[in-house]
C-alpha cells in the first residue's frame, strides 16, 4: 500500500517546508513536530474534522494532522457561512478547526457522536459547487490523495530543491494538489497570502526563489496585466495551468517564453472527483497541441465511450471522456450516512465530450447536453429539476455555459422561480431566466421537448431585465462580459467608473464600498437599499465640485480657477486607479482606449466651430492648440477654454510613452508610489524649465508642462498606501502649492487655484468616502458623470445668448443664472444623448439575435416569437440606466 507523504514529513529534516511572509521558514522537522502534536490532540478514534482552508500554516498543519491521525478531513472555504452551515448540518463533524475572533480554535462539536461511523478508507472530503446549491461532497481515500500527489510530482519532475508558489485556495483541489505534490518529494511551498494583482507579487515571487507557478487561466490574465513576462526569474523551472480552458494563443505565448529560457509549460486537466489531476500535455507536444488536454497522468487511463457506453477506438470521434486510476474518488456524499460507504465507483465518467487525435492526445469538444458550467460551477440540469420538484415546482431546465432557463407550470411567478433556481444552483440572478407554460412542450413519445425550450432560451437571451449584467454590458459595449468579471479586471477607466456609479445607484439604491473589485455576480446578489443617506466616493464628490467651479468661474468674474486644477489631480488619480494595470502590463492599446471616448465628443465640437467659422481650426484638430502658435481670433484653434482636452490627450500620450520603455515600466510596477514621487520632481522641474525654453507668454498656463505636477500629485495620492506616504504627499503639496501660486502670477486666482488642491488631496488621502443625503448624492453623481459633457458645452448657449464683451453678462444675476443653468443642463442632456446612442447599438444587436432565433423556429411558434419581440423592446427600454 502506498504510504502517504504525511507519514514521512520528518524525513525532510531542516529543509524548508513552508515559506510564509514576515516569519522564518517552517522546516520539515518543525512541521512534523507540530503535526504530530496536533494529531495527538485529535485523539485515536476516527473522526470527521472540518478545517478552515485559509492560506495559513494553521490550516495546513491541521489538514496534515488529520491525515496523520487516520481521520477524515474536510477543507471548507474561509468566511463562507453558507458552506459551513450546510456542511455542519449535513455531515455533523466531530471537530471543527477554524478562526474565531482572530484566533484559531479547535472545537469538539459532539454533532457526530453516536452517529454513523466514518469508513476506514475515507481521508479527505472536498465540496464541489454542485447542482443543488449546497454542493456534493467528494469522498477521497488516502490512497487517492497519496497517489495523485505522486502522479503530479512524477510528470512535473518535482525534486526536493523546488519551491512552488501556492496562490490558489486550499479547498480547491488544484490548490491542494500544489501543496501535496511538493510535500511528497520534500520540496517547499511559498504562501504569499496576497493576490497576483499585488504590485510587489513578481518581486516577492523572485525573492522567494520560486521554481514553479501554478494558476488557473484567469491567474495568467492577471499576470499579463502586471507585466510578469517582462521580468527575469532566475530560479523558475516551469509553470502549470489547469482549472479551465486556457486560450491556445495564451498557452503558446507562455510556452514560447519559457521554452526560450530552457523551461517548461504544462497544460493540465482534472476534476475534484479524481483528487485533482487527470491529464497533462507533455511539453514536447507544445505549441502544436495547445488546444489539447493531453494524456492520462502516470498510473491512469483515459478512453472515450459513445451513447451506449461502448468504447470508441477511432481517432477524431467525439465521445464521453472516462478515466480510471488510483486517484478516482470513492464516490459522492450528501449526508453523514454516506460517509459509512466505501468505493462506489472505480472509473470516472467526466461528463466532458472529447476526441483523441492521431498522437493519442485528447481534446475537449464540449459537455454533455444536460450540463452547464457557469462561473466554474458545474450544473446538472436533471439535478436542478429534481431540486425544484422537491420544492413543489414542476419545471424543465435547459441551459448553456452562460445562462439557465426554467420552463415551469403552475401558479408560481417568474421572479419566484428565478430566485429559487438561482439559490439552488448557487449562481447569480443575471444567469437565470424563467418562463411560464400552461403545459410543458413534449415530443410525440411524451418526453420533454428540450430543443424547443432551448430555442425559447435564445429568445429570452435577446431580451432581459434591468440587471447589473445589463449595466456592465452597456457601459463596456461591445466587449463580452462574464459574471466573474469586475470593473478592475475589465480595465475600466474613470469615465466608465462614473457611468457605472450612476447605474449602480439606480439599480441598488447605493454604491457598495469597493464595488469596482466585486464581480458582476457579487453585485447582482446585493439587495436594493432604501436608506435616506448614501455613501459617495470622495473623488466623485470632488469631480462634481470641480466642474461646478469651472462653470461658475466662466459665468462670473470671480477669481476661482481651481476647478480645472482639481480635475487634473483627479486625472492622475484615475490613471493610477483604473489604468495602472494596463500600464504595468505594457498594454498601451488598452491604456489609450479611453482617449477615444474623450475625443469623439470633442471633435463634434470642433466640427461645429468649423461649420460656424467656415474654417477648420487645424491646431485643435491636432490637439496642439495649447502650445502657443495659434490664435482663436484667427480661427486657427478653438477658444482657450478647450485647452483642457488638449492637455489631457497630451498627458495620456506622455504617460503612455513613459511606460513604453520596459525599464521604466518595471520600475513603476515595482513601486508605483516611488515612481510617482520621482516623476513629481521631474514635473516641477518641467514647470519652470519648459516655459523658459519655450516662452509663449501667459498662455503657458495651458501647457502640459505647466500643469503636469497636478496630475502626478493625483497618481501619488492613489498609491500612498501607508501613513508615512500619505503625510509625505500632503507635505509636498503644502510646500509646492504656495510656490506655484507665487510664481504663477501671485494674484488671488493663482492662490485659489493651487491652495485648494491641498484640501482636495487631503480628501483623497484621508476621506475616501463621504455620507450625504440620498437626493444630494444622486444630483452630485449625475453632475460628475456628465462633467466632461458639461465642460465641453457649458459656454455654447451663454455665448449665443449674451454679449461677452458686456461686463453685466458676468455680474447681473439673470445672465449669470442662465449661464450656469444652461451650461449644466446642456451637458447633462448631451450625456443622456450619448447613453441613448449606446442603447441603440444594444437594441440593434438584440434584434439581430432575435432575428436569428426566428429563422430557426417553425411557423407555429411565430406568435410566441412576435410576443418576444415586443417584450424585447420594452425590456431593453427598461434596462436603460440613467441618472
3D structure, described in words:
The chain crosses the membrane at residues 597-620, 640-661, 673-695, 701-720, 727-745, 751-767, 774-792, 812-833. Residues 118-332 form the AMP-dependent synthetase/ligase domain. The protein has 883 residues and is of the alpha/beta class. It has 3 domains: 5-365, 3-Layer(aba) Sandwich (Rossmann fold), CATH 3.40.50; 371-462, ANL, C-terminal domain (GMP Synthetase, Chain A, domain 3), CATH 3.30.300.30; 538-793, no CATH class. Helix content is 47%, strand content 15%. The chain contains 30 helices and 28 strands. A 9-stranded mixed β-sheet has the order 2-1-10-9-11-12-13-14-15. Strands 6-5-3-4-7-8-19 form a 7-stranded mixed β-sheet, with helices on both faces. Helix 10 (414-425) links the parallel strand 25 (404-409) and strand 26. Helix 11 (450-462) runs antiparallel to helix 29 (813-854). The chain is globular and about 95 Å long. The relative contact order is 0.06. Mean pLDDT is 85; it is low at 842-883.
Give me the secondary-structure topology.
Elements: E1 16-19, E2 26-27, H1 28-42, E3 48-52, H2 57-68, E4 72-76, H3 81-91, E5 95-100, E6 103-108, E7 122-127, E8 137-141, H4 142-156, E9 163-165, H5 173-184, E10 188-190, H6 201-207, E11 212-215, H7 217-225, E12 238-241, H8 248-259, E13 264-270, E14 277-281, E15 295-296, E16 301-305, E17 311-312, E18 319-324, E19 331-333, E20 348-356, E21 362-367, E22 371-374, E23 377-380, H9 381-390, E24 394-399, E25 404-409, H10 414-425, E26 432-436, H11 450-462, H12 468-475, H13 494-508, H14 520-524, E27 533-537, H15 538-555, H16 562-584, H17 588-613, H18 618-621, H19 643-659, H20 662-670, H21 672-693, H22 704-719, H23 723-743, H24 748-755, H25 757-766, E28 769-773, H26 774-785, H27 787-793, H28 796-801, H29 813-854, H30 862-878
Helix pairs in contact: 1-2, 4-5, 11-29, 12-13, 13-26, 15-16, 15-26, 15-27, 15-29, 16-17, 16-19, 16-22, 16-24, 17-19, 17-27, 20-21, 21-22, 22-25, 23-24, 23-25, 27-29, 29-30
Transmembrane segments: 597-620, 640-661, 673-695, 701-720, 727-745, 751-767, 774-792, 812-833
InterPro entries: AB_hydrolase_fold, ACP-like_sf, AMP-dep_synth/lig_dom, ANL_N_sf, ATP-dep_AMP-bd_enzyme
Pfam families: AMP-binding
